[in-house]
Amino acid sequence: MAITSGNNASATAIARQNSNAIKAEDNREIKNVAAQAKQAQNVAILKANEQVSLRSNNDSLSLLYKTALDAINAELEPVMGENAAQKIYDSGIDTSPEATADRILAFATGFYSRYKELTPDKTEAENLTAFLDLITPGIEKGFADAKDILKSLKVYEGEVETGVDSTYSLVMQGLDSFREKMFELAKAAETDSDTSADNGTEPDVSASN
What we know:
Blueprint: H1 2-54, H2 57-80, H3 97-109, H4 112-118, H5 124-152, H6 158-201, H7 205-208
Helix pairs in contact: 2-3, 2-5, 2-6, 3-6, 5-6
């Protein structure tokens, strides 16, 4: 009889331990579910806030500017080294299409002089073509990345879409203008060099007197 009583007590203790373990596991699962629900809620709130913010054309073009700079930097690094382009993104700057395009162009083309120093054996035309071939994919990727983000948040429409498209057109026009300007400067420098050489061969009249 004593043995039976002992067995019953042991079985009761084991059952109680199992019950407590099950309850603890259930509590952990409940906490995990609650944490996941809270995280999902926070993500939804953040996404909603981003959508509200990015529906403003100014904030959308700020995003565009940042992604364009990041992509240009990635294209320049293999040629000009890591961190070749200093990121100058500032959320407080003017974000009109014209101003955004001007900054993207200034940022990208500002490295041309340094690029030419790395390839002194090439002509101006060769350097210019190679440089624009290098930075243009970075600019295009920056625009594509920005569009993907805006589309995923369902705000790439209306004023936002118009602003991004206008900025892209202005940047492409600016690259064409930069190409023409560099060619004109190169021709002017070549003309000045030829003129100086010609002047050097002319007799010095003052010296003969």
